[in-house]
Amino acid sequence: MVPRETDVLIVGAGPTGLSLALSLAQAGCGFVIVDRIAAGANTSRAAVIHSNTLEMLEPLGVADTILEQAHIVPRFSVRSRDARLLTVDFTALPTRYPFTTMISQAVTEAILEARLGALGHRVHRAFEVTDLAEGIDGVDATLRGPDGAVSRMRAGYVAGADGMHSVVRQAARIPFEGSAYEGSFVLADVTMDWGLARDEVDLFFAPEGLVVVAPLPEGRHRIVATVGEAPPEPTVDDVQRILDARGPRGEAARVREVVWGSRFRVHHRLAGRYHQGRMVLAGDAAHVHSPAGGQGMNTGIVDACVLGPRLAGIVAGRRDREALDEYVALRRPAAERVLALSDRLTRVARLRNPVLRAARNLGLRALDRLPAFERSLAFDLSGLRHRAPPA
Questions:
Q1: Distance between CA 28 and CA 63 in Å, rounded?
Q2: SS3 375
Q3: Selection from 142, 159, 169 nearest residue 21 by Cα
Q4: How many CB atoms are closer than 10 A to CB 16?
């Protein structure tokens, strides 16, 4: 059973919710974290952790463990078949982590949850929040447990880290503004013969759509591609066709095995507000966008690390509730910029008009010769542009 009362109820135990729980634990704030699924994620989904995210995770005691299990990638390249259009090098960034870290989301979640357990806390799984009602001095939550039994909890604050279909956002009556992209995405982790370097993530532009090829630990690669209607479980032939049509010709890939695969549709949405009264949003509950640039999970984790100490300060009486407005002021503009960047990358990658594609390629080659542009894009992709001050 879950406790009947807590300072903060965290709804959702993905990377955002787990990072928020760790942040509250480090601050000595009472909390309960629940998730409606019975077990942690067992698929890869997100696969990249950026520089700013590692900086934020370092005080939580997990950055070194992540690096021990990850594959380090210092460059990001944009290509059209065999032509390199643009390269972003992270190695000169002013950070302890001047690179991109490739690691399965399942592993990231396992590391975060293990650290939470080492601090004496656990996730209450298979508990679904069915109702939230805010009162003068708290929020009454109704939960359905794994045996179907209904329980109630009183929380000082509720943090929604429960994804695009957030029950917290719906209970707070916060609009989720935006739309969905046409078509769908293929997502697959594969083993394959790959002639390009394993020290860079490659984004390929093609008339058929974009494809991202990113190296993972254990010699695997992550494939993300736009398609009209993705198969529910992509096969070797499905992934091979995508790479044949969009990837390099000179160093053609040969896919040997699909370790795991799925499909998903992508939305481009931003919450109208990040908090309403005592209910506050973070991660995909507040913003969702294209995977181009690998920003989704990172933006959510940083949300959590910025929100945690401010929420703990409110609970402890060290801060007033305007600290939530400070969180919004720091993180909503960051999400707006991430949405704009990922949307531009996605739309530019999907150009079909040959004249516009040629102009795009010439423009990117010109920008590739401008160090200031490369540095600016590196700051955006790494998240360092939105470093948050201490709480």
A1: 20
A2: helix
A3: 159
A4: 32
Please state which of the ranges 43-52, 59-68, 140-149 shows the lowest mean pLDDT: 43-52
23 C-beta neighbours (distance < 10 Å), count: 26
pLDDT, one tens digit per residue, over 275-322 is 999 999 999 999 988 776 677 899 999 999 999 999 999 999 999 989
Whether residue 101 is found in the same domain as residue 194: no
Q: What is the CATH number of the domain that holds 187?
A: 3.30.70.2450
Whether 204 and 310 map to the same domain: the answer is: no
Beta-ladder partners of 76:
88, 201
Say whether both 334 and 233 belong to one domain: no
Tokens of 52: 């700013």
Longest CA–CA separation in the chain, Å: 66
Same domain for 253 and 312? no
Rg (CA), the chain: 21
| Residue carrying the six token digits 């707070």 | 172
Per-chain mean pLDDT for the chain: 90
Nearest to 2 by CA among 162, 10, 119: 10
Give residues with Cβ within 8 angstroms of 145, minimum separation 6. 1, 2, 126, 127, 151
β-pair type (31-35, 123-125): parallel
81: helix, strand or coil: coil
Phi-psi region of 5 (alpha: psi -120 to 50; beta: other; left: phi over 0): beta
